[in-house]
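Re: duplicated header lines in exported structure tokens

Our pipeline writes sequence and tokens for each protein into one text file. With two proteins the header for the second block appears twice in some exports. Here is an export where it did not happen, for reference. First protein block:
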Amino acid sequence: MKIILTNIPNYSVSDENCENLYYRAIDNKADAVLIGPSSMKTGERFKGRGVKTGVSISYPSGAAFPDLKAQEILDCEKLSGVADMYFVTAAAGYYMSGHEDNLREEMRLCVKAAKKPVYFITEAAEMTDECLEKMCRIACEEHVKGIVTSTAFMPYDIKRAGAADVSRLKAYGAGQLETVAFGPFCAGEDVEEIQKAGADMMILNESCEIGNV
């Protein structure tokens, strides 16, 4: 299971914080870091040092029109070449209200804009099996790389995704989507459960003291 370190749930981060995130990822042999667009220039100094860079789009609410999300990716690509992949927060609430056309459009436009692996962040624990299965099917059809279980943004009053949600995503992805676990994991047992459930990647907040970090 690959490990990604991130600082995005902290929402406001400094250049120094971003540097420390990369250093910690290197020291602990993490596979990648996940940063916000404002940290991309800082991240350029670490390109080629063995840690990949993911960049978040429309985090944490996903409340932007599909074309604006795609434009943000294009702007990031113009600003810097540091991004190896993008993590786009889906407009999950809008999708669950019956607007699957909006989900499909944002997936299609973002994948086209990035020309790099694109992962979509959702809130799996809030979704019925039918809703989650449909999201995965659309993601496969639109060539999304993988689905992330949650934004893991603590102020949100939402159910927290766990191993059961990883298992559901793994089943609905049918071998075509990577399953990425993201949550406020607080113990080594959490990592073990997520790994047993079949997660391909786990995103850990920089403040975590578990797993490989």
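Second protein block, exported in the same file:
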Amino acid sequence: MNLFSTTLTTIKRHRFQFSISWVICLFALFSLTSFGVLRSILIQLDSLDQIKLFTKPEIKQLQEYFADRLLFCCIGFFCLLLIGFALRLYIQKKYTTSLKQLIYTTGLEFFIGLMVATISLILLFAIFEPVYESVLQNLYHQGLNQFKNLPNFVLSNGTSGIAYSIRSSLSFELSSMTLLDLFFNALLKACAFLVASLGVMILLFQTINRISKRKNVR
């Protein structure tokens, strides 16, 4: 309880720094969730019995494209959070004598910022769902741009005369309810990754703190 109250006091004292942490967490959640949703959509498209807009190799290439970007985002945001964590420890170290408690309070502060960012992203998704779908659509089209010889249209069954656009809206293949499920699944995975990253950072800095104390004793 003392740890929680100390963290809240620190947040009130350093609101600007907390706002930066919140923005970083919000952007990280948005990026990780978006690429996670697109990767899941491609898996869905590959398993649907509807008109096949892409061949198996093309879908696999698209999946790898978004999987690579999801991996780059994970590595990039982990490094960014690590740098931010270290900077917060360096800045606030002069306000406390216990580095051990400071590591835990900083971790809890980042966790609170992550929870606030999660709620904010859900609210933004609920209010601006069409805007979010258009962002997904733009990212989806960027993935399609890697194909040089991709046709603009695909004929249904090859003989029906009905042409389907390769760049059709994602809502054409998936219902809004399915997209909602994919969004929350991807958001949950993104939150789990960031929480695990915070845990690793706390353990890392606590280990460094113990090692430095032993060296000072010697």
